[in-house]
Amino acid sequence: MMYIIDTANLDQIRKCVEFYPIAGVTTNPTIISRENTDFVKLIKDIRDIIGPDLMLHVQVTASKADDIVKEALLLKEAVGGNFYVKIPISQEGLKATSILHNMGMKVTETAIFTQQQALIAALAGADFVAPYVNRLDNIVSDGVQVVSEIVDMFKAHDIKTKVLAASFKTVEQIHKIAMSGCHSVTINPELFETLTYHPMTQYAIDDFNADWESVYGRKSIAQIFEGK
Ligand code: E4P
């Protein structure tokens, strides 16, 4: 499974790239507008930080197919590398998805709330579909179930489109999505940190350190080898 981070904050991206095995960065207009800065410079800076190989997903704002295609090409030209254009699903979005797919562009169909939306987006040529787990839970649906059914449906029909589950608020949602066989998740950096933290882990590390120091003082293993 791939972990992707859902942010346009450069400091957070730098930190995640340094410490975590992330596969890329996703953004949307809300995430971009939070940074309140020069849009083109921002997405180029993200590319510079993550390098050409990690995925960068940037969303269009146009709603007509021709304009979506135009924005997709401009975005791809600006950021280059492993780029995915995010297109919210709609009639025009599906038309643009087919056009871009036939041009060899990689597309992430986003704002997916139903299994059938995901299937149709996949058939239009989307490389990823992004169902919104927490937003489904918030409308008393079941985000994990919707994602599981999309994953199963793609398997049953031998569809190569990957599922990029998005919109998370809890570690439990992410864990259940991982158990469903979903290909990837995009999560914000704060939630990412809670995936790796556990108080019992910290307790164990503190214990190891105290026991080591009781015999070797503050000497590290490297200092012992170096005879310091
Ligand atoms: C990512 O593709 C989505 O735009 C994002 O995860 C939505 O998350 P939210 O529901 O927390 O806004």
Report on the structure:
The chain is of the alpha/beta class and 228 residues long. Helix content is 55%, strand content 18%. It contains twelve helices and eight strands. The chain has helices at residues 10-19, 29-35, 39-50, 65-79, 91-102, 115-124, 133-138, 143-156, 171-179, 189-196, 199-216, 221-225; strands spanning 2-6, 22-26, 55-59, 83-88, 106-112, 128-131, 162-165, 184-187. An eight-stranded parallel β-barrel has the order 1-2-3-4-5-6-7-8, surrounded by eight helices. The protein is globular and about 70 Å long. Erythose-4-phosphate is lined by residues 6, 26, 28, 110, 130, 132, 134-135, 166-167, 186.
Sum this structure up briefly:
The chain is of the alpha/beta class. It has twelve helices and eight strands.
Strand elements, count: 8
Note the gap between the termini: 44 Å
Bound molecules: erythose-4-phosphate
Number of helices: 12
Estimated structural class: alpha/beta
The main β sheet shows up as: 8 strands, parallel, barrel
Dominant shape? globular
**Could you report the average pLDDT, rounded to the nearest whole number?**
97
Give the strand order, joined by hyphens, for the main sheet: 1-2-3-4-5-6-7-8
> Which bin fits the share of residues in helices?
55-70%
Tell me what portion of residues adopts beta-strand conformation: 15-25%
Sequence stretches where pLDDT stays below 50 over 5 or more residues: none
Helix and strand element order: EHEHHEHEHEHEHHEHEHHH
Q: Determine Rg (CA atoms, Å).
A: 21 Å
